[in-house]
Amino acid sequence: MESEKQYYQENAMMFARLEELAGKVDGRIAKVRTFEQKIIGLEFELKKVKEERDDLKSRLAFVKKHQAKVKDVPSELEGLSAENFTIRNKIAKIVTDIEGEEVSEEGIRELIQTLISEIDDCISLLK
């Protein structure tokens, strides 16, 4: 018993140092676990941010397409307005020609065909 006590006394400094090192190792292990949890949290946040980025990219693409369509509408309308005026003039001229002359049955058929083709042009422009 005395030899055991003497052994602990002689090596007390070494045991104290070992306990100190064990405490430091436990502290390092706790820090590693903390960092691992932080990494998991950051990876989750990164995933969410990427999903949000992808959503924003798709919204931006949709808005750009919509904006391009909206830009095209005025130019299409301007073209239709000019074309409508031309078509109205053609139809008015045909009507005036009919009123001013005595037209045969064959002439009426020809005028009706002309009106139908002009109306078809109008319909295709409106589409």
Features of the shown structure:
mainly alpha, 127 residues
Describe this structure in words.
The chain is an all-alpha fold. It is built from 3 helices and no strands. α2 (12-100) runs antiparallel to α3. The termini are far apart. The mean pLDDT is 80.
Q: Quick one: biggest sheet? A: none
User: Based on DSSP secondary structure assignment, what is the total number of beta strands?
Assistant: 0
Shape, per Cα inertia axes: rod-shaped
Poorly predicted spans: none
User: Mean pLDDT, nearest integer?
Assistant: 80
> In angstroms, what is the radius of gyration?
45 Å
Strand content: under 5%
Q: In percent, how helical is the residue content?
A: over 70%
- Summarize the helix and strand pattern as letters: HHH
Structural class: mainly alpha
- Figure out the total of helices: 3
- Cα end-to-end separation: 108 Å
Secondary structure layout plus pairing:
Layout: H1 2-10, H2 12-100, H3 105-126
Helix pairs in contact: 2-3
Question: How would you sum up this structure in a few lines?
Answer:
With about 130 residues, the chain is mostly helical.
